[in-house]
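Chain A, query sequence.
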Amino acid sequence: MSFTDATQFWNERFDTGEFIFGKEPNEYLVQKSAQYLKPKNSVLCIADGEGRNGVWLAKQGMHVTGFDVSDIALAKAKQFANENQVSIQYSLCDTDGFDWQVNAYDAVVVIFIQFADPEMRARIFKQVHQALKPGGLFILQGYTPKQLEYKTGGPSLIEHLYTEEMIRELSQGFDILDLQCYEKELSEGARHTGMSALLGMVAKKSS
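Chain A, predicted structure.
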């Protein structure tokens, strides 16, 4: 999907008064941030959408950078950041268009980016590795193939879903600190509600 097509696709989804994934941060991110992150950490949020995760991280005192392919989502995210009196450096781009600095972030947060096909996913893991400082953390949440039975969010294409084996294989150059597949009731706006089949990972860039 080209950048223009992706922008159009996501703009159509985000063009509504409500926050389609809610305003509360992702639960796995909240738990793992409490465990591993600190105020003043520099954090990159990939495809941060309407800003629920980026704004929450900024409210914990972190320096947040984020990007998304939807200008409508980013307008909502910026407004949400203003309402919460935090500042986030947002840019309109996709994962291939983002300016991936080397050794720039203490953490990179990747929550439900299941628009990525296998080739893009492999590129993203390499880009995340490049962007993290040595010892920096990669926090990931996604759906597993069992999610196709629940149909409570996420893509209908199995190749866009995560298995533990796949994630381990992609995580070369990282030390995995936490990797779990589990099922849980989610309540993240209209798009992610109900019993869900999830994978969560925290990995550290090998120093």
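The CA atoms of residues 84 and 92 lie 21 Å apart. Residues 3-205 form a domain with the Rossmann fold fold (CATH 3.40.50.150).
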